Amino acid sequence: MNITAFLILSFSSLFAVIDPLGVIPFFSGLTSGMDRRQKRKVLIKALVTAFFVLLMFTVVGHQLLEVFGITINAFRVAGGVIFFGIGLDMLQSKPRRWRTGIGRAYAKDIELNQDETEDDDPSITPLAIPMIAGPGSITTVMVLTPQAPSHLGIPLVMGAVLGILLLTGGILMGADAVLAKLGRTGMKVIEKLMGLLVTVIAVQLMIDGITPVITSMIS
Question: What range does the domain containing 142 cover?
């Protein structure tokens, strides 16, 4: 895989898992009582936090696997299982164990009591963790890094992360306008497409993880 192909894979994988459009209803609900300056401050804080969380797992994630005696192939299979659950839930529009998209946008979670939450800062939790830097995105950066060409795994993956976070920031700053234009139906259509992409990525991850094990057993 060349660098361009790897960057495309990394960007598309992170976009599907983080699902910036799916974060829109949460961001709009959590910041509904704020002016534009306050929203920008919350968003920047959330994006910076998410960046450093993903950076940490990109840099030391594999050392953590070694400490616990976990192989990267095992992590690929586990990541594939997680992704498959995420994608299947997105395709079926079911409430998800992993927050990835629109599923809960119209649930009670977004119906906030302004009096009880006006002093809360949603930037770290739930926006940064787990909405942006959640189980799906953490698994993605850890699985992608060793697949990079030569020794460029960390800078290439973090470049894709930075690109996705900048795109997410741009989308969320226009969240109210996007939500008004797309509506619930449009958001659900996007959710289905993202779900399909996540499911395909999940199958490929499981194939990549299982194939070396089967090859080793046969040989």
Answer: 3-218
